[in-house]
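Task: complex structure prediction.
Instruction: return structure tokens for all chains below.
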Amino acid sequence: MTVVNLSDELGDASRARLATLADVLIPGGSGLPSASDADVAGQWINRTLAANPDLADAVAHVLAVEGAPGEVLERLRIERTDVFDAFAFAVSGAYFMNPAVRQALGYPGIAPRRMPAADGEAEYYLEDDILAPVIGRGPVYRQA
Amino acid sequence: MVALEQGTWVDPGSLPGNKPEYELLGSKNWHPSPNVRGRREDYPVDTTEADLPVWLYNGVGGSSVLYGGIWARALPSDFRARTLDGVADDWPISYDELLPYYQAVEREMSVSGLAGNPAYPPGFEPPMPAAPIHRTGRTMAEGMNKLGWHWWPGTNSIPTQNRTHEGKCVRYGICRMGCPEGAKSSTDVTHWRDAVALGAEVITRARVARVTVDERGRANGAVYLRDGVEHFQAASVVLMAAGGIGTPRLLLMSASERFPDGLANSSGLVGKRLMLHPYAASVGVYDDDLENWLGPAGEHIGSMQFYETDSSRGFVRGAKWALLPIAGPLEAAEKWTDRGSLAGEALWGDGSADRMKSFVRMLQWHIVPEDLPEETNAVSLHPTLTDSDGLPAAKVRYRVSENTNKIIDFNLARSLEAHEAAGALRTWVAGRNFMTGHNTGTAKMGDDPATSVVDRFGRAHDVPNLYIIDASVFTTSTGVNPTATICALAKRTATHIASNARNQEVGS
Ligand SMILES: Cc1cc2nc3c(=O)[nH]c(=O)nc-3n(C[C@H](O)[C@H](O)[C@H](O)COP(=O)(O)OP(=O)(O)OC[C@H]3O[C@@H](n4cnc5c(N)ncnc54)[C@H](O)[C@@H]3O)c2cc1C
Ligand code: SF4
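Output:
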């Protein structure tokens, strides 16, 4: 298999399997969608593998293992930590890229964005003489 | 002035930080490990016999392209480890000798921070005002005050005001993936563009294979490979700035009949005494959204409470703490998933949604320990592995010492207390033996040619017109982030060369 093109080659069946496996890791709740509801196995895994093609091996490896999704992942977690970690990284990377997930987690925008400091912001966070005790204790370095 | 650089210029527009894939791109093409990036210019670094991988960046600006911009002068006691604590060696220079050079480079690097830090002797006055310490810093500061512990608003080589060519920091918070704004003071931005405008030539994609010497043993140029073709650049004086791994590698590759053990290596110390500052991290989960993703990253606050030696603790030397933002959800997830994490629960499965929702309510302390020099921690030439030009890769042997582990244990325990005092609902150790990119010590500075590679001005004892101006010259690693000291030493060497130009021996 051409590893780099895994996302092109993922057929419907593989994507359905990937969604089920991903849901074991990320079942959702508390206002967050599950991995499958967040379309992890669709466009987001494609973008993930395009951004880091090294992860394709682990995704392919996990998809090739047959069995109940929970058991497959639990076995890999114990026996193939490298594969499990890379798979979890890929799936969660895909999940966190979904703007709805990012927003629900409390991150701004679809990616980090410009947020210049406002005038007076530095002083604001130092109000109430919060540095006074540090200054009052005096030097903490050794003379040499 | 001709600079030979194996990498290329960085186009800020190509950097990942403001793209939705940023953390994934940061895990591959912009990863700080050359082995993960695997670009043509990334010479492999074999770390199979090391406790941690090595981080560095190969391109114009070097590792400052990916550094966090935490700007920390070394302390007076750092230059006197032998005298004060009976370990390692004293530097041949003192804090006071370096002071004017720290001050000069702080202007050039647009360092921002608050004057009056009681962790330093008087006279540390960053030229730009400090960035906001933000909710993160404020929350932790209140905890530190309860404990009566030192903290100070972050000092970073990240401008808080616009400067001649670049704008100020706009707080993307992803400085360690390169600054898409071109705001962070990496040396491609702060120095190289101006140097080129003033007539310096930078030849990129030029991998130096060896520095050559004339019949009198003076450096007279460098052989480099570009697109597989060998070139020679003649030079009257050679300055080496290939970094704590690259410089010993290049000196060793420059072995010749006259210098069979490598250039400038009569002491046998080239490549030895590698120090890496293996850092540790602790986290706390708090009640409120702390907007912990906001830049600069850079430190929001720092602490030197446990920096100086206190013999009652059972170890010598200490650590600097930095409260850093968490760049995004994948970095937050690592606080559970890292193999060294003591979270005590998996991130995945039932309850994962609640754990993920705590990502923005987390604070992290990074703890950088001083790492003392040992000759068994060393960079050598790999016997078989090569880079894309067929030159030997670097081999790194490195074990974390008992003293370093004790520093880490003690400081991690204190940092958990700090989280608790600051109101954390849960705290844990998120991992240890992380990479800092602080690769120091492999071409030791000292007065005695028998026990050091370069003299107090960075000049190789064995080669009168070869100077080393990077992290490899550190006599000890100090317990702080090294870039302030690298820059100050380089400035001092440059000033020395300029003021002694008349007497400078040159190659022929
Ligand atoms: C992710 C990360 C975060 C960091 N954060 C901080 C921080 O917050 N504060 C701090 O003080 N420090 C930090 N550091 C460390 C800091 O970046 C480095 O210590 C510093 O940049 C090292 O400078 P140097 O000149 O020694 O080497 P480098 O900056 O590594 O430069 C070496 C240069 O030499 C080139 N080179 C090497 N060999 C050859 C050759 N044979 N031919 C041609 N070119 C060659 C390389 O391509 C490279 O450009 C960080 C590092 C990393 C990786
Ligand atoms: S936080 Fe500031 S310095 Fe860091 S990447 Fe963003 S703009 Fe650049």
